[in-house]
DNA sequence: AATCGTACCTGGCTGC
DNA sequence: TGCAGCCAGGTACGAT
């Protein structure tokens, strides 16, 4: 489901809902959601008594900064967090709730995921950089660690098509299938153009488009295409501003040519065949 | 080493 | 109505 703007919205919602709460117990209904070498009851025991001190985000990963450790959560395609005050707990948990965090005040946070792709992992301590470094995650696009010179260097070093390269989170984190199409449209670059064939001005336009689109989408609370909701149950608004994603057959807002949809490495890919250049 | 296909899952929609 | 087939905001892993 979510890309950087949606994950940021979920994180901000959780920041309002669960900060300062202490984990009393955790019920796990689909064990594969939890990535651990431990037996699940031992894993839960590590978390019991820890307090949520802060919420953070790295790329599309949500971080629960706990008293001692860090809980890392990736929503993948359909993960959601549902918060229930103690006096509004569901009689029966929803069908797709796979993990229930029960707090000492009786409130609960449920991890809900129709496709069960999401993952939750506990990292020792608070220094999470080795974990993300091992995954090869690139810089945060909305921070000053994202630099044009590095970005250009990364593009020049790959003959892959630009879209799959941007999706792999190594040059920059946070783009997924919606925003990569939007960014390439704004920068007027064909999704199949080899990264090392981008001109200097295209590279710069792409760099700037990434920052602009993601910042606007964060501002709008993300995009709700199918089922996305933040943890307060609110939909995003940026879907109204999408120029090409889901718009195949409609006229290009820039030149009027009919937008098309193709498949690039199994992902639906939307673009304008006349103003995005190979 | 880098890049690609496939697996992981369920449900909604389309078309026969 | 029923059902097969395709599609969906992502990543990990094995094959090439």
From TrEMBL:
DNA binds at residues 96, 115. GO terms for biological process: base-excision repair. SUPFAM superfamilies: Glucocorticoid receptor-like (DNA-binding domain), N-terminal domain of MutM-like DNA repair proteins, S13-like H2TH domain. Residues 243-277 form the FPG-type domain. The keyword Transmembrane helix does not apply. Its EC number is 3.2.2.23, 4.2.99.18. It comes from the Bacteria. It catalyses: 2'-deoxyribonucleotide-(2'-deoxyribose 5'-phosphate)-2'-deoxyribonucleotide-DNA = a 3'-end 2'-deoxyribonucleotide-(2,3-dehydro-2,3-deoxyribose 5'-phosphate)-DNA + a 5'-end 5'-phospho-2'-deoxyribonucleoside-DNA + H(+); Hydrolysis of DNA containing ring-opened 7-methylguanine residues, releasing 2,6-diamino-4-hydroxy-5-(N-methyl)formamidopyrimidine. CDD domains: EcFpg-like_N (cd08966). This is Formamidopyrimidine-DNA glycosylase. It comes from Ignavigranum ruoffiae.
């Amino acid at each position: 489901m979510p890309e950087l703007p949606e994950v940021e919205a979920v994180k901000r919602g959780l920041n309002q809902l669960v900060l300062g709460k202490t984990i009393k117990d955790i019920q796990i209904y689909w064990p594969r959601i939890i990535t651990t070498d431990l037996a699940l009851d031992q894993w839960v025991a590590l978390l019991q008594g820890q307090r949520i001190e802060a919420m953070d985000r790295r790329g599309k990963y949500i971080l629960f900064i706990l008293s001692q450790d860090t809980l890392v959560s990736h929503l993948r395609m359909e993960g959601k967090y549902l918060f229930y005050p103690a006096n509004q707990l569901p009689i029966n948990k929803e069908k797709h709730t796979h993990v229930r965090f029960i707090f000492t005040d009786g409130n609960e946070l449920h991890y809900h995921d129709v496709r069960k792709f999401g993952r939750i992992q506990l990292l020792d301590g608070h220094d999470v950089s080795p974990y993300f470094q091992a995954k090869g995650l690139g810089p945060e696009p909305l921070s000053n660690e994202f630099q044009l010179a590095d970005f250009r260097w990364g593009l020049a070093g790959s003959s892959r098509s630009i879209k799959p390269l941007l999706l792999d989170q190594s040059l920059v984190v946070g783009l997924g299938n919606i925003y990569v199409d939007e960014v390439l449209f704004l920068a007027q670059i064909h999704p199949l153009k080899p990264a090392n064939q981008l001109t200097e001005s295209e590279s710069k336009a792409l760099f700037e488009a990434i920052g602009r689109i993601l910042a606007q989408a964060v501002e709008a609370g993300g995009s709700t295409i199918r089922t996305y909701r933040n943890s307060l149950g609110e939909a995003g608004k940026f879907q109204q501003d999408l120029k090409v994603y889901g718009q195949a057959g409609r006229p290009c807002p820039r030149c009027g040519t009919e937008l098309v949809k193709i498949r690039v490495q199994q992902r639906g890919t939307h673009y304008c065949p006349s103003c995005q250049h190979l």
